[in-house]
């Protein structure tokens, strides 16, 4: 995968369609991988927070989520074809998931939001298979149970809405234990879908 280095972050030079195709490959291969849609705020903080930069550098796909990142790539003489935002990639992947019968787990946001977002996705993409949902306000001692719930759901894609950058750190920390082929942070996207 061709990338461009933006302040230490390896940003994929992919269109939305190409990013979705790369994720489809991850689902087929089956080993746990992390997708990060990188926005300028995240990249800025990563300059000072080594844990964030480590998560970005370890991620399997980093997309240019914001015109600032697209601009920086052009300045670096190594342009990315377009912006690939979290919500756009989420919707594109939900569409693919419905088509291929991939199992989708929605984790995060206030109680009830993930369920409402799942209903909305099922309306937009008939046939979507829901592996499960869980809200994002669990206590530290409840965390192992949440990880186990996701693991047992046999999800193909896990969307994590705990807010950036916490969701990316959470995904990186639990990636192997979750055992899900694609784990991606989606920020406030579940709230947007839930309406
Ligand atoms: N969120 C959560 N648990 C928390 C904090 C936040 O599930 O402990 C959820 C919140 O309800 C929202 C989502 O994370 O649905 C994204 O939050 P925010 O808009 O602050 O993050 P951003 O979109 O900037 O990443």
Automatic annotation (TrEMBL):
Pathway(s) it belongs to: Cell wall biogenesis; teichoic acid biosynthesis
GO molecular function: N-acetylglucosaminyldiphosphoundecaprenol N-acetyl-beta-D-mannosaminyltransferase activity
Keyword Cell inner membrane listed: no
Catalytic activity, EC: 2.4.1.187
GO terms (BP aspect): cell wall organization; teichoic acid biosynthetic process
Keywords, in A-Z order: Cell wall biogenesis/degradation, Glycosyltransferase, Teichoic acid biosynthesis, Transferase
Substrates-to-products reaction catalysed: UDP-N-acetyl-alpha-D-mannosamine + N-acetyl-alpha-D-glucosaminyl-di-trans,octa-cis-undecaprenyl diphosphate = N-acetyl-beta-D-mannosaminyl-(1->4)-N-acetyl-alpha-D-glucosaminyl di-trans,octa-cis-undecaprenyl diphosphate + UDP + H(+)
Transmembrane segments: none
Protein function: Catalyzes the conversion of GlcNAc-PP-undecaprenol into ManNAc-GlcNAc-PP-undecaprenol, the first committed lipid intermediate in the de novo synthesis of teichoic acid.
Family designation: Belongs to the glycosyltransferase 26 family. TagA/TarA subfamily.
Name of this protein: N-acetylglucosaminyldiphosphoundecaprenol N-acetyl-beta-D-mannosaminyltransferase
Organism: Desulforudis audaxviator (strain MP104C)
Parent-record interval covered: 1 to 195 of 240
């Amino acid at each position: 995968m061709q990338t461009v280095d933006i302040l230490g972050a390896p940003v994929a030079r992919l269109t939305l369609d190409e990013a979705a195709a790369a994720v489809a490959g991850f689902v087929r291969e089956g080993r746990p991988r992390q997708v990060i849609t990188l926005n300028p705020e995240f990249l800025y903080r990563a300059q000072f927070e080594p844990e964030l930069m480590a998560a970005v550098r370890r991620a399997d796909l980093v997309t240019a989520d914001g015109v600032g990142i697209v601009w920086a790539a052009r300045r670096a003489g190594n342009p990315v074809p377009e912006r690939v935002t979290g919500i756009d990639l989420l919707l594109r992947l939900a569409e693919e998931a419905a088509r291929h019968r991939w199992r989708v787990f929605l984790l995060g946001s206030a109680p009830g939001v993930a369920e409402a977002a799942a209903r909305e996705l099922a309306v937009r993409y008939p046939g979507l298979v829901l592996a499960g949902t869980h809200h994002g306000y669990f206590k530290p001692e409840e965390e192992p149970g949440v990880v186990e719930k996701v693991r047992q759901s046999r999800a193909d894609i896990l969307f994590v809405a705990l807010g950036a950058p916490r969701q990316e750190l959470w995904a990186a920390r639990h990636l192997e234990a979750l055992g899900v082929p694609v784990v991606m942070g989606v920020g406030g996207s579940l709230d947007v879908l839930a309406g």
